[in-house]
């Protein structure tokens, strides 16, 4: 059984692109299905934290694309396969361990407007 690396990488890129789209769709669905006036504080804060994580992930990705020089080690098959997952985990860690306050400000704004 022969496996073509080129076709596997193309499939991997398609999966990675779909994963990013799925995260955006998941966040969009979470926010559009959320009735702010009827949502519990926990649901509202969870949606705000999800938005903060997504925002940080997009900042990390765009920063890497524009500021970080291409390295041969980073342009391998593993990074193409798991790069999006890595950036999602970085975003989650930044959001949980730093004091950005985006989720808190968004939460307070939503509570004030209801």
Number of helices: 4
Specify the overall morphology. elongated
As a percent range, the share of helical residues equals over 70%
* Rg over C-alpha atoms, rounded to the nearest angstrom: 18 Å
Strand proportion, as a percent range, falls in under 5%
Characterize the main sheet.
none
Order of H and E elements: HHHH
Number of domains: 1
Distance between the termini: 61 Å
Low-confidence stretches: 1-9
Based on helices, strands and strand pairing, what is the structural class?
A: mainly alpha
Tell me how many strands there are: 0
Average of pLDDT: 76
Q: Could you explain the architecture of this structure?
A:
There is one protein chain. This protein is mostly helical and 114 residues long. The protein has one domain (9-113). 77% of the residues lie in helices and 0% in strands. It has 4 helices and no strands. It has helices at residues 5-32, 41-67, 77-97, 102-113. Helix 1 runs parallel beside helix 3 and helix 2 (41-67) crosses helix 3 (77-97). The longest helix is centred in the first third of the chain and has 28 residues, at 5-32. The chain is elongated. The termini are far apart.
